[in-house]
Automatic annotation (TrEMBL):
Residues 59-102 form the Methyltransferase domain. Keywords: Acyltransferase, Antibiotic resistance, Transferase. It is an enzyme of class 2 (transferase). Gene3D superfamilies: Vaccinia Virus protein VP39 (3.40.50.150). Belongs to the antibiotic N-acetyltransferase family. It comes from the Bacteria. It comes from Gloeobacter morelensis MG652769. Its EC number is 2.3.1.-. This is Aminoglycoside N(3)-acetyltransferase. The gene is aac(3)-IV.
Amino acid sequence: MGPDRQSEELQELTQQTRAIWDRNARFWDAAVGEGNLVQSTLIGPACERLLAVQPNMTILDVACGNGVFSRRLARLGAQVVACDFSETFLECARARNTRFKLLASDCLWYKSHFLLNEAGMLESQIECHALSRAVLTEQLHALGVEAGGVLLVHMSFRATRPIEGGPLGLIEALRGVLGATGTLVMPSWSGEDDEPFDPLTTPAAPSLGIVADLFWRLPGVLRSNHFHAFAAIGPEAAWITSDPLPLPPHIPESPVGRVHDLNGQVLLLGVGHDANTTLHLAEILAGVPYRLPTYCTVLQDGRPVRIDYEENDHCCERFAFADEWLRARGLQSEGRVGHAHARLARARDIVGVALKHLAGDPLLFLHPPSAGCVECDEARRSTGA
Ligand SMILES: [Zn+2]
């Protein structure tokens, strides 16, 4: 099928779909109105959480229907621009005294066309501006990042961008908020089991992202001299990065252990608790019984030597429990940093809530056997259970 034929079919499909929604819109509007049970208890709250709606945020609601969700967002203070390709739906939205701005249906058709064909173009229309250093600084202050404190950051730059100055701009904003007496810490391990680690040349693991790999290369940043490296800058950087190779990687005498000792904060920027290594420290302090064999390679007298060890590892998905534990106690601050959802909590609070729950069930972080998770099953087997 040639591109012209494809485009013709797509237009035809769009017209058909629009006609169907024009027919159904009033029925849908009467039935759902300001939200049925699914809308108001499941979809709405989950979307609001994901968006981390803040006053004066601008949100484009594509395919707004009768505007039920746009009105929720507007009530939370967002500036909402909404559009739908069904003119009848737009009439329903207007009839409900809509206070958000409605775009004409043709405009939506044009945009939905982009969405189908060139998703990146629609994305760039929504997130069209790079956030300035001033806005970023304000966001970090609002979240509760402490001047003069120790801050361990795990992040996805993809989720955070675009921001002024790119990855370096983000690092500078973080350092600016911490000030001269604060210490910034990021993971910096290589993840290459077979390669000896050299803190001066070994790249950070690709999974840690572009910011982590830029950070250790910056002037004044210290990096652990071992495979499970973290990098840090500031008054506590030397203490945090100076322990010898920790086995397993997140024992108390390791960078995350030192951040915990120093009552540091942990910032999860565009990532969840599954990226939160401080929870591995909690597992060790709780004495969880699972250990998986793994290895790394170090240089001894100039020769690569393999070191075998056991690590408390699994898929880490169930680290997400920490969200509920911390939220329930008011110990986690959440909001927007850059364009990403951010979580901030003290390392000691993260460890504290995890210890409390692991005391009741040391296998809590492992998926149950019925979930079919290969990694968690392997961890479970290592306990002899
Ligand atoms: Zn699992």
